[in-house]
From TrEMBL:
Protein name (record): Pyrophosphate--fructose 6-phosphate 1-phosphotransferase
The organism of origin for this protein: Hexamita inflata
Site-annotated residues for Important for catalytic activity: K199
Lineage: Eukaryota, Metamonada, Diplomonadida, Hexamitidae, Hexamitinae
Name of the gene encoding the protein in the UniProt record: pp-pfk
Gene3D superfamilies for the chain: 3.40.50.450, Phosphofructokinase domain, Phosphofructokinase, domain 3
Protein family according to the UniProt entry: Belongs to the phosphofructokinase type A (PFKA) family. PPi-dependent PFK group II subfamily. Clade 'Long' sub-subfamily.
The enzyme's E.C. designation: 2.7.1.90
Binding site for diphosphate: G78
Family matches, as InterPro entries: ATP_PFK (IPR022953), PfpB_PPi_PFK (IPR011183), Phosphofructokinase_dom (IPR000023), PKF_sf (IPR035966)
Compartments, as annotated in UniProt: Cytoplasm
Catalytic class of the enzyme: transferase
């Protein structure tokens, strides 16, 4: 065991005041309707729609100990730093509220629930994983509980194992699945309650109703920003390369924005802005070429460009094409699929867009699909697509400048990093909230902690109904109830700070090198002792600039 691992395992995450002992009270607020399409969602989820918000408040009276519970837990989807602390927080709080409870970890994600493959999580086993990255304590998976057979299998496991509750740790699709299970178990008369936990480094699972961030975002952005900061200084030292850095975030640009705020790159592309401005690919190329040419004129043939991996899909002309491919042309396609055959079946305007995309990218669009059956945007080398376009603009303008591009993709490097002090406490608290909710027989909710820009003891624990996050979207050509993804707020303070500073960042070398994550006590700018460092985005949204 390394000194690093030993130190981290001894670190004690901090909890909100309401979760520090066994004294607490649950308070219910007003009913929370779905964020959109309420009537349609209520028809699909009659038992779990329009439920009230719940807050967990401290009490001087100790709560009565509960009878032992049997709780299951699942990791669903991609990894995110801090997941193991959700398990630990869930386990510890269960033992505190209901001594001798059993925690069953279903192996390999939802499939483990359907196949009833699990292990009993003990204090000794979990000790190895406290404050550590990864999901390898029980593994994860991207299987969906979708068919009648799947729901029957999940219900059978719940009945056989006599589960009092089930915690699903995942993103928007996984928590949509949690809501489906909660509704299904009620209809079947099962005692198993279902609670979701917000996990995704992309931070597109947020809500002004109570989810300020999803866990893993803080840590992964710190990891990426350290690497970007290193490249900033490399560019400044070598003075001959442009580094094009693609970052995770297919559906939203939160990671790119956060890393931009931490490192001050010369170009920071935000997909939501490009979509709002209805920019074409050519306009994006020209915007980038303008900055590259201006820096070259000032003797700076180097720079840093940050790109969200889903950028190509935010460009409206491409988005229209992808929507047509995903929902009209490719579903049910029979036989060989080639670019030539697809082009023949596209409307004239979409054919022009399709044929303007580099041939290698076109091939990826047709052959690579994600777990939902859609185009695998995350596999597209967007940085090469952009550089190719910039080079064409430079050629058209007959600019005599030096332009050497280097490519990077920072994705998997951040998903299993050792969690920051913020994510360590945040995840431990989310697990603790889930235990309290299940101990009180609550189902169909998402575990929440608010007021996250403050010290952990001032965080506010509670829960919101999963259906309150839902809307109706087209999936596989059908109207489907899903949790709504949340995009970068173009009217928000973090994006506003980028807008105010990006012209200066483009022309000058304002690079910042954040350095590695530190799990130590430090002082903030106001001289207060703090034991966590939350993301720039969280602090700016809460306090302003």
């Amino acid at each position: 065991m390394s000194t690093f691992e030993l130190y981290r395992r001894q670190y004690n995450p901090l909890l909100p005041a309401s979760l520090q002992g066994t004294g607490y009270t649950l308070k219910k607020g007003e009913p929370m309707a779905p964020v959109a399409d309420g009537e349609e969602i209520a028809k699909q989820f009659p038992m779990t729609t329009n439920l009230p918000a719940i807050s967990i408040e401290p009490s001087t009276e100790q709560s009565k100990l509960l009878e032992p519970l049997t709780i299951g837990v699942i990791f669903s989807g991609g990894q995110a730093p801090g997941g193991h602390n959700v398990l630990c927080g869930l386990y510890d709080k269960l033992q505190q509220l209901a001594p001798n409870s059993k925690l069953l970890g279903f192996l390999g994600g939802p499939k483990g629930l359907m196949d009833n493959k699990h292990m009993i999580l003990t204090k000794e086993y979990l000790a190895t994983f406290r404050n550590m990255g990864g999901f390898h304590a029980i593994g994860s998976g991207r299987d969906k509980i979708a068919s009648t057979k799947d729901f029957d299998a999940a219900a059978n496991t719940a009945a056989v194992e006599k589960l009092d509750g089930l915690v699903i740790i995942g993103g928007d699709d996984s928590n949509t699945n949690a809501c489906l299970l909660a509704e299904d178990f009620i209809k079947r008369g099962l005692k198993t309650r279902v609670i979701g936990v917000p996990k995704t480094i992309d931070r597109d699972l947020i809500s002004k109703r109570g989810i300020e961030t999803s866990f893993g975002f803080d840590t992964s952005c710190k990891v990426y920003s350290e690497l970007i900061g290193n490249l900033c200084y490399d560019a400044l030292s070598a003075k001959k390369y442009w580094h094009f850095i693609r970052l995770m975030g297919r559906s939203a640009s939160h990671i790119t924005l956060e890393c931009g705020l931490q490192t001050h790159p010369n170009i920071c592309l935000i997909g939501e802005e490009i979509l709002a401005k209805n920019m074409t690919s050519k306009q994006v190329f020209e915007y980038m070429a303008d900055i590259i040419a201006q820096r070259a004129a000032n003797g700076k043939n180097y720079g840093i460009c940050l790109i969200p991996e889903g950028l190509i899909e935010f460009i409206p002309e491409n988005n229209k094409l992808f929507d047509y491919l995903n929902n009209k042309l490719l579903p049910g396609w029979q036989g060989e699929i080639t670019a030539e055959l697809v082009a023949q079946k596209l409307p004239a305007d979409l054919k022009v867009t399709f044929e303007s995309i580099p041939p290698t990218i076109r091939t990826q669009l047709l052959l690579d699909r994600d777990p939902h059956g859609n185009i695998a945007i995350s596999q597209i080398e967007t940085e090469k697509f952009l550089v190719s376009g910039v080079q064409q603009v430079i050629k058209e303008r007959e600019l005599k400048i030096k332009f050497s591009a280097l490519y990077h993709f920072f994705g998997y490097e951040g998903r299993c990093a050792a969690p920051s002090a913020f994510d360590s406490s945040y995840c431990y608290g989310l697990g603790s909230v889930a235990a309290v909710l299940l101990g009180n027989g609550i189902t169909g909710y998402m575990s929440c902690l608010k007021n996250l820009s403050e010290q952990p003891d001032k965080w506010i624990a509670g829960a919101i109904p999963l259906t309150s996050l839902m809307n109706i979207e087209m999936r596989h050509g059908a109207r489907t109830a899903v949790i709504q993804k949340q995009m970068v707020d173009l009217a928000g303070r973090p994006f506003g700070f980028l807008v105010v500073n990006r012209e200066k960042w483009a022309e000058q070398d304002c690079y910042q090198q954040p350095g590695p994550i530190q799990l130590i006590e430090c002082q903030d700018v106001e001289g207060r002792n703090v034991v966590y460092q939350s993301s720039v985005t969280l602090l700016e949204e809460a306090r302003g600039l």
